[in-house]
Amino acid sequence: MVDGFEHMIDAARPFFRGLAANNEKAWFEPRKQDYVDDIRKPAEFFADLAAEDLSRITRQPHLPKVYRIYRDVRFSKDKSPYNPWLHILWSQSDQDKLCASWFFACGAEELSLSVGVISLGGEDLRRYRAFIDKWGALVCERLDAVTKRGGQISDYGAAPLKRVPKPYEADHPHGGLIRRKGLVITQPFAEDWRERSFLSSFNQTVNDLMPVWSLFDQHL
C-alpha cells in the first residue's frame, strides 16, 4: 500500500547520505532543485496532513514546521552549511513550553518520531521536576511500554545535571529523570512502514507514543 510519501523517503535517504559526506555548497547547489522537488515540497505537504491527524488523535490543534536545510553557523564551531536530515516539528498553538511537541526525523539511517518537552528552564523546569517527583512511577511505566516497542529516551537538548537538584534527595527513586532539563522519547518507524503506507505508519507511531503524550497533557 502506498501514498506517495515513500518516494520522499527514498529520495531523502541517499540525498542526506551524500550531503553528510559532502557538506559544501559545491555539492549541494547542483542538487538543490532535486532537494526542493523530491524532499522539501513533499515534506511540507506531509507536515500539513500530519498536523490534521495529530489534531484529530490528540484533540488539540497542532501547527507544523519544516526545518530549513541551511544551518545557522553564527555561533557554532561547526561551520558546515547544511543540515543532513529532514526534521519536522508539530507543536500546539498553546505557548506553554510544557505542552509536548512531536518531532519527525529522516536521515540517511534514521526514520523516527519523537514526543516530549525540551530545553526547559526557570519555572518550566521547576514544574517538570515537580511532575516527575509526583508522577515518576507512572512515567517510568509508560516509558517501559515504549521501550519494549523499540523506543528510547532521546539525548535531544541540554545535557542532564550531574547531581539531583535541591530540594530533591540525592537518592530520589526518579533522580535520573529529575536531573534532565526535558524529556523526549523517540520511537523508530516499524520496519513494515512501506507495506502499510507512510502516513498510516506515522499515525500508528503516534498512537504508540500517545500514552507518553497524555502524561504531559493531563498532569503538567
Description of the structure:
The chain has 220 residues and is α+β, with helices and mostly antiparallel strands. Helix content is 48%, strand content 15%. A six-stranded antiparallel beta sheet has the order 1-2-3-4-6-5. The model has no long low-confidence stretch (mean pLDDT 94).
CATH architecture: 2-Layer Sandwich
The structural domain count equals 1
Structural class by helix and strand composition: alpha+beta
- Largest beta sheet, briefly? 6 strands, antiparallel
Record field, number of beta strands: 6
Biggest sheet: strand arrangement: 1-2-3-4-6-5
Question: Alpha-carbon distance between the termini?
Answer: 39 Å
- CATH 4th-level superfamily: Protein of unknown function DUF1054
Proportion in helices: 40-55%
CATH topology (level 3) name: BirA Bifunctional Protein, domain 2
